[in-house]
Design brief:
- The complex is a heteropentamer, with one copy of chain A (229 residues), two copies of chain B (225 residues) and two copies of chain C (286 residues).
- Chain A is 39% helix and 22% strand.
- Chain A contains nine helices and ten strands.
- Chain B has one domain: Orthogonal Bundle (MetI-like fold).
- Helix content of chain B is 78%, strand content 0%.
- Chain B contains eleven helices and no strands.
- Chain B has helices spanning 6-35, 41-53, 56-67, 72-81, 89-114, 117-125, 130-138, 143-158, 162-167, 178-187, 191-224.
- In chain B, helix 1 packs parallel to helix 5, helix 2 (41-53) packs across helix 5 and helix 6 packs across helix 7.
- Chain C is α/β, with parallel strands linked by helices.
- In chain C, the strands form three sheets. Chain C has a six-stranded mixed β-sheet with strand order 7-8-9-3-10-11, sandwiched between helices. Chain C has a five-stranded antiparallel β-sheet with strand order 2-1-4-5-6, with helices on one face.
- Chain C is globular, with a radius of gyration of 24 Å.
- The chains are: A alpha/beta (229), B mainly alpha (225), C alpha/beta (286).
- Chains B and E meet through helix 2, helix 3, helix 8, helix 9 and helix 10 of B and helix 2, helix 3, helix 8, helix 9 and helix 10 of E.
- Strand 15 of chain C pairs antiparallel with strand 16 (281-284) of chain D, so a sheet runs across the interface.
- Bound molecules: adenosine-5'-triphosphate (2 copies), molybdate ion and magnesium ion (2 copies).
- Molybdate ion binds at residues 8-10, 36-37, 56, 110, 115-118, 143-144 of chain A.
- Chains B, E: It is found in: Cell membrane.
- Chains B, E: Keywords: Cell membrane, Membrane, Molybdenum, Transmembrane, Transmembrane helix, Transport.
- Chains B, E: It is a multi-pass membrane protein.
- Chains B, E: This is Molybdenum transport system permease.
């Protein structure tokens, strides 16, 4: 059976590359299950048959560790960055302040109770003091992934998403983006853990993938996608 | 823990508005289908039944594109009426109407088709127009079917989930309906809140259905006895 | 005067056939439509009412053209001055008896018509009942007077009296005759009860397999005036022995002594039996 | 011998009433059930068949107890040796005529019974047709022979001949009589056609408002005398005017002068007609 | 772009298995309801209709609790049979059966109730048992209703989304059915793949419905002509 990798939505594109590279190196195939970190955590608690979990923060893997659902203490594999991504004709060059522009009608944010990137977005908005002003413009996606979808289908004008997403996407020339001032939100430390569910061959594979995540090859891929260490 | 009842009220509002709109739309559609002998009737019936079998994610995907201000319809709406349907209550109402259409049309059409043809004929031989015949003879005689249609539409809209998940945007007070709230609370592991919402929806849905089945029996008995 | 000339394809049990009727009925005729099941009687009534469309046809009632497929005239059902009593009555279940009648009344103010007709058919007490709580005889009477509300030129009745017990049947026959005379209208009634036809109608149309095979007065059609002093029957010889001949006549057996006349008879022979009415003895059945 | 004693609440139009029938029928009786619409005829038939349960009752057929509510005996429908001809025929639409008969046959090998009965009712050509493509007369004949497949001790017929034209009615009457005699069974037939009852039955039960108001032989009930020197017929009064009475007797009309005897007659009355055989004139048909 | 057809096959497999199971379960249930005169019948009918109106998230929530190896039923199943129903294909089949139950029961029950009672009675008077009567007389005469039930069940299972999202997760080859795959592809911004899946489901669903409506008409005509 293929390795089952539960991955936070912000990392879905980088994870795809990682899995490809991992297969090239080891011949081990892996499936990605993408979702909001909180949703994946809930599913793991319900007994979802995942082998390894790449979260968007450390809170969720720690919670699983506390409930003895992981094999190891979660470890940070990368730090992510929050960006603002906008449609072609809308500028976000002035950062969060540019959101007061009346041309911006809808702003997509990941669900702060399920997605760490959503939580970070709300922190940034509050820190700027624009949270209440912008409130009527906000729409919430299940995860970063739905936020991306809302922007790409043209239904919102600005989306708060992960840098890895825009780096993947802007190659295809899709709109403008601007990094959110890193001082406005708590650093997004992304943790990984091998899960109790993983047994036999899959556990061996999970352990190899876990190790691979901290390898030089993996790190260079993470770097391409804008992650820091 | 304090429960936020707004999603429940919103759901109720959505179900009510959808049902009223579908009464106005569904009854004429059912009436036309019931008396149609056209060879295109099966096509029309298949299209109307589509929401019954199509995944909400398919419908949601198409609506997302259709309503998007980037393309076609959505663009026109935004340009002319400054109306954006995704992430708006109006959008939910429109998609609920599409989604619940078969739940209104089917029972009413079946009711009309089950009426003996001689009732319509008799009214015609008494010199009455199609409209008079429909409102004074046909419609009053399919009350149980009409009731079924209303109740099924209402209850089914209470239960709408997939579509709202895709085009709603989870905006409290605007598109965060009860079914979405439950999903959210479950995913956030707030099982207690989820329990409250789920229990309320379960009780409401069950009560509505039970009323229909008990009433239908009674209505039926009235006709027979 | 009513002129009917219609052609319509029928899907009969033995393949498709043609309903083909050409008839002229005098003004104020009480016409019976007669023929075996599946002959096309109901179809003809519905064509006249406008509920079915013939492929080809002309229908004229009292000088007014209701249908003329050549001249593309097809008067809407609502405009045709008809009253139709359906085989299943077709009373509106959502309305009471009085509401059914009120619905049918063209001028909603003349409710005294309703009251007088209700009284005539002994339904005054039931005026506020829903049709489903009525007996079939009562339903039939409501259907009949509802059809009269418009004072139609033509009353179409589809087997309105079949499957009723004799008392009820006779009561309705009388009422029908009196309405016919009082309103001076045309009546077209489907019936396969010969005595009823003879009693009620002055014109008969006989259909078979969609074809009009006979038309005329009941006297002409059923040879009634042939020999009213003679009773004519057909019997079958059951047995012949030394003393007597046993005959089966209309489901009972009679025996007669041998004679010259019967000498050559043998079992199975068919025999006509005649009797002068003065030799008959009658007794009313209670 | 058949013993019936049942009580069942009926919901009549005018409020609730009681179906209450106590009757004993001799073995191999051909019994007619007679009475106005809503009297409870169909209900009684269904109780005997076991399709409806009375509140209280005893039914015994040829010494076998089918129902005894006191002794809590209630034989399942399937075990009761009955044939039931329903008012709506109840042929199985998914089966052809032959398949309908085959389904009813207890021993699937004796298919020669099917062929002989099909021949007897002139349906051999239609054996492979589905019921929906048959005329109502044909359907009725299939229903009748299907009910005979089990050679039942009791044949229950619910108005099997109403709403049929005369020719078809008489044909089926003859077939019914011959089956009755050949199979030696009990027959219980619902009919409101008096001549038919007198022609066919040897026992009559008259129901009204759920009550058995008369029972006996047709002779007793309708005051007929049986006499081989007498030809007995039943006629219907067509009209009564100043000079004469017109009567409809067996497909022809006769007229007789007014007399004291006929003074109280009115149209629709049923009349027995008797004639001594010496007054009959016979002629062999060639 | 290469399309992964596995979700489509998985969906087909799920729909087929569910339909077969529901034939076995739904027909007896419909038969019992059709002839029941019990005063509990409306309750049974309301319970069976519940999935028609209940949000998939409510049903999903309760199933999640029931199936979860952390509590009651799920714990017992795991302990005794080592069977885990959440995130498993078997779990999906069971929840699909619950979810599509009314789609099988309703048409079949309606078909049976519309048959003239005299057919059953006639078969009984011919000495035939309830079982023989049911399989040789009643069932063959409600073919159109049966067909509707089968097709609606199949098509409705094709369209299942909310429930799978909640208790199936998104495990390739196990629970990643087409409706979920569409949702996922849309979120992965692979709109083209989503289009392919959506179009296939749309065409399949529409074809199925159209066949039913065309066939029903034909079947109906066969009966009438
Ligand atoms: N709309 C129609 N178009 C073509 N054929 C029809 C139509 N309606 C009925 N038929 C067929 O025409 C034939 C005559 O039907 P119709 O109902 O007129 O008979 P009927 O004389 O009234 O018989 P019954 O005495 O049984 O009522 C039947 O065989 C029937 O199948
Ligand atoms: N199952 C039942 N329980 C109680 N009452 C019934 C039942 N079925 C019928 N009735 C009522 O009993 C009365 C007699 O009905 P039934 O069908 O036996 O009459 P019938 O003599 O056959 O009349 P018809 O000549 O019209 O067929 C009717 O008024 C009917 O409403
Ligand atoms: O990657 Mo997340 O869990 O959607 O913030
Ligand atoms: Mg007819
Ligand atoms: Mg009856």
């Amino acid at each position: 059976q293929k390795l089952q990798v539960a991955v936070a939505a912000n990392a879905q594109f980088v994870a795809k590359m990682l899995v490809k590279e991992f297969k090239k190196e080891t011949g081990i195939k892996a499936d990605l299950i993408v979702g909001a970190s909180g949703k994946l955590t809930t599913q793991i608690e319900q007994g979802a048959p995942f082998d390894i979990f790449l979260s968007a923060d450390t809170k969720y893997p720690d919670e699983l560790y506390a409930k003895k659902l992981t094999l190891n203490k979660p470890k940070i594999y990368a730090y992510g960055s929050l960006v603002m991504w906008s449609k072609k004709n809308i500028s976000v060059a002035k950062g969060i302040r540019s959101l007061t522009n009346p041309a911006i009608q809808k702003i997509a944010v990941a669900n702060p109770t399920l997605a760490p990137y959503g939580e970070a977005t709300m922190q940034a908005l509050k820190a700027t003091g624009l949270a209440t002003t912008l409130q009527p413009k906000l729409v919430f996606g299940e995860s970063i992934a739905q936020v991306n979808e809302y922007l790409l289908s043209g239904n919102v004008d600005v989306a708060f998403t992960a840098k890895s997403v825009v780096l993947d996407m802007t190659q295809k020339n899709k709109g403008n983006w601007k990094e959110v001032d890193a001082r406005l939100y708590k650093p997004i430390a992304q943790g990984v853990a091998i899960l109790k569910n993983s047994t036999g061959k899959n556990l061996v594979h999970a352990q190899r993938f876990y190790k691979f995540l901290f390898s030089r090859e993996a790190r260079s891929i993470f770097t391409i996608y804008g992650y820091k260490f | 823990m304090l429960t936020d009842y707004q999603p429940l009220w919103l759901t109720l509002k959505l179900a009510l508005i959808t049902t009223v709109c579908l009464l106005a739309i569904g009854i004429p559609v059912a009436a036309i289908l019931a008396q149609s002998k056209s060879k295109f009737k099966p096509f029309a019936e298949a299209i109307i039944s589509l929401p019954l079998v199509l995944p909400p994610s398919v419908l949601g995907f198409y609506l997302l594109l259709a309503f998007s201000p980037n393309y076609g319809l959505g663009k026109i709406l935004e340009a002319t009426f400054n109306l954006r349907l995704v992430f708006s209550f109006t959008g939910l109402v429109i998609s609920s109407i599409i989604y619940s259409l078969p739940f209104m049309v089917h029972p009413v059409q079946a009711g009309l088709e089950a009426l003996p043809g001689s009732l319509r004929d008799a009214s015609h031989t008494l010199g009455k127009s199609d409209i008079t015949t429909f409102f004074r003879v046909l419609l009053p005689n399919i009350k149980p079917a009409l009731l079924s249609g209303i109740v099924l539409t209402f209850a089914h809209t209470l239960g709408e989930f997939g579509l709202v998940l895709m085009i709603g945007g989870n905006i409290p007070g605007v598109t965060r309906v009860a079914s979405i709230a439950i999903y959210d609370e479950v995913e956030a592991l707030n099982f207690n809140t989820a329990h409250v919402y789920a229990a309320i929806l379960l009780v409401v849905s069950f009560s509505i259905l039970l009323t229909v089945y008990l009433t239908n029996k009674r209505l039926f008995k009235q006709v027979v006895a | 005067m009513i002129k009917i000339s219609v052609r319509k394809k029928l899907h009969l049990a033995h393949g498709s056939s043609m309903l083909s009727v050409d008839a002229e009925l005098p003004a104020q005729a009480f016409t019976a439509l007669y023929g075996p099941s599946g002959a096309g009687k109901t179809t003809l009534l519905k064509i006249i009412a406008g509920l079915l469309q013939p492929e080809e046809g002309i229908i004229e009632v009292n000088g007014e053209t209701w249908l003329n497929t050549h001249r593309k005239i097809n008067m809407p059902i609502q405009k045709r001055s008809i009253g139709f009593v359906f085989q299943d009555f077709a009373l509106f279940p959502n309305m009471t008896v009085r509401e059914n009648l009120l619905y049918a009344l063209p001028n909603r103010k003349q409710t005294d018509v309703i009251e007088s007709l209700l009284t005539k058919v002994h339904l005054k007490n039931l005026a506020n009942r829903k049709p489903d709580t009525l007996s079939s005889g009562q339903k039939q009477r409501v259907a009949l007077i509802r059809a009269l509300m418009r004072k139609p030129q033509l009353l179409l009745l589809d087997e309105p009296l079949s499957a009723l017990d004799d008392a009820m049947r006779q009561h309705l026959q009388q009422e029908l005759t009196s309405f016919y005379q009082e309103y001076g209208m045309n009546v077209l009634i489907v019936s396969h009860h010969l005595p009823e036809i003879i009693k009620l109608s002055n014109q008969v149309l006989q259909l078979e397999g969609g074809q009009l095979i006979k038309a005329g007065t009941p006297d002409m059609l059923f040879n009634l005036e042939q020999n009213p002093d003679q009773l004519q029957l057909i019997g079958e010889v059951l047995s012949v022995d030394e003393q007597q001949v046993k005959l089966w006549v209309e489901h009972s057996m009679i025996s007669i002594p041998l004679s010259d006349n019967t000498a050559l008879w043998k079992a199975g022979d068919k025999v006509t039996i005649a009797c002068h009415t003065r030799d008959l003895r009658f007794k009313k059945l209670s």
